[in-house]
Amino acid sequence: xxxxxxxxxxxxxxxxxxxxxxxxxxxxxxxxxxxxxxxxxxxxxxxxxxxxxxxxxxxxxxxxxxxxxxxxxxxxxxxxxxxxxxxxxxxxxxxxxxxxxxxxxxxxxxxxxxxxxxxxxxxxxxxxxxxxxxxxxxxxxxxxxxxxxxxxxxxxxxxxxxxxxxxxxxxxxxxxxxxxxxxxxxxxxxxxxxxxxxxxxxxxxxxxxxxxxxxxxxxxxxxxxxxxxxxxxxxxxxxxxxxxxxxxxxxxxxxxxxxxxxxxxxxxxxxxxxxxxxxxxxxxxxxxxxxxxxxxxxxxxxxxxxxxx
Length: 309
Hints:
Blueprint: H1 3-7, H2 10-17, H3 26-40, E1 43-48, H4 56-75, E2 87-90, H5 109-123, E3 127-129, H6 137-149, E4 155-160, H7 166-169, E5 178-182, H8 197-213, E6 217-221, H9 225-239, E7 246-251, H10 257-265, E8 270-276, H11 280-293, H12 297-308
């Protein structure tokens, strides 16, 4: 991580984090999802910021919160059926004190995901297993294979186009898997990943077309207006994909209101990735990663705050 980003005081990071985190409780996150749906016509996926845990009790707490999340979105009458309900995104590192990036074996992570997937299937809630750093790629692919073999077809996967291996990894996907395509936020060695962002984004287009032709549901994740429009105006017509076969995904708080509303008015599904915390330390760690990947975010946040003032 950039030493400058690491040196920013936690209090200042928290100030920057506010537009990008839906709050410090599950209720605040669900309420934010309702507002986005009713006022702006946008769908959501909720994510608990709970990485880098160090105790088994923290892992158990994270499982408990996800079970509460499932109940909250399934039972809230403000969501009229499965399509309007938020999906839930999770990271396997939230359930282990032996993370792979630190030389561990990920003990407990896969078991926790299966427990959450079981409850989600019972309640009719869709999950997505996020892709983390390259240390987790093989582990995550195996988790997805085992989940779908056990009938958990409601669980989707995430792939990062920056990794050189992704083109081959897509071939391992179970038929019909829901796939979120992103360039990824994790810094990787140039021996295993692209370093030029435009090349990563071009792969978003080519990989999404390949997935659509294979019958996968594609969640196209980027804030780049050019590539969103090329996906919607070029890839979708070329493939002949129906509106219920794809969606655009963006991050909560990133200012793209005009583009988002244009897409909604055109009948395109737009889903925002809505993170929340139950402790601000986790939210601060999340935003440090975002700032490291996209330092210009500091200036955008400052501009937004001054414009509101």
